[in-house]
Amino acid sequence: MSQSKLTDRFGRTVNYVRLSVTDRCDFRCVYCMAEEMTFLPRQQVLTLEEIARIARTFVSLGTEKIRLTGGEPLVRKDIIELVREIGTYGLRDFAMTTNGSQLPTMAEPLRKAGLKRLNISLDSLDPIKFASITRTGKLSRVLEGIDAAREAGFKGIKLNTVVMKGGNDYEVPDLIEFARKKNVDITFIEEMPLGDISEHDRGKSLCTSDEVRDIVCQHHELIPTPEDSGGPARYYRMSDSPIKVGFISPHSHNFCSTCNRVRVTVEGRLLLCLGNEHSVDLRRVLRGYPVTDDKLRQTIIDSMDLKPERHHFSTNGDVQILRFMNMTGG
After folding, report:
1. How far is 50 from 294, CA to CA, in rounded Å?
2. Contact yes or no for 125/146 (Cβ under 8 A)
3. Model's pTM, two decimal places?
4. Rounded to whole angstroms, how far apart are CA atoms 179 and 318?
5. Is-contact 91 64, C-beta < 8 A?
6. Which residue spans within 83-210 are E strands per DSSP?
7. pLDDT, tens digit, 9 for 90 and up, residues 4-19
8. d(CA 266, CA 329)
9. Strand runs (DSSP E) across the chain, as ranges?
10. Strand 279-281 and strand 269-271: pairing?
11. Bridge partners for 190 per DSSP
12. Chain segment 112-162, per-residue pLDDT in tens
């Protein structure tokens, strides 16, 4: 494929795409979606072939990294076939974000299909707290999934923890010890104001990355490292462990100046920014021009002019984006 670069008005090169494969999930995490969710009708959802076509077109435009997201991507029927297809595109990095519930049976098939890395959500090591955060999840199943991913030979495994003050912030030291024991990286994430939720006050529950880092530093010295995963995290290491500890800080240290990524929702909306509603309808182009990708390619190139300079997340709990995270793609 001929390579070219996607560049926005601010000189940022976009080479990382997050593709949502479903808005559905077997969990109902309190920071991600409402307990009673209405999911998209099937005809509004991109087919796996359409998702692959978008991926292939982005790769032809210089994309080096693709992450499959959801919802929970592993509840999508025939997801292994999509992984196998995208795995042939010669990507520098091919990853998936998952809640881990399906990994006990799917980790090995995913690895064999060509997936390179896994981000596994883990917000608590307390079974009762885990059940209250996920509403429907079983901690034992996720822990089994983490072990299955390690046994399947995934070298790149990272745990993602959304830290909520007064919720799970007291577990930060235990989560660090768990990551050290399992020899997997861990990233702590500030909660993002996506979707209207009633379970907790986001303004009061925001735990900044600086606060989380202070908690970690009570137990371990964190040494800054220049390592870059191609995403928004800032990484640190510890002198007595090979793992990396990352922090994603959309509120306190926004990463907009180096943003290299866009998202495609499962209904085919190309989102140019997580924290803004700028989007382009790729599904209309896909279905209006089913034979060649020329129009799709040009639409993606033109969309770069819509990418805003930065997002403006509020720290007082106000919801600026009404779509839930499962609609956006993780």
Report:
1. 14
2. no
3. 0.87
4. 33
5. yes
6. 93-98, 117-121, 156-163, 185-190
7. 689 989 899 999 999 9
8. 8
9. 6-7, 13-14, 16-20, 65-69, 93-98, 117-121, 156-163, 185-190, 223-225, 234-238, 241-248, 261-264, 269-271, 279-281
10. antiparallel
11. 163
12. 999 999 999 999 999 999 988 887 788 999 999 999 999 999 989 999 999
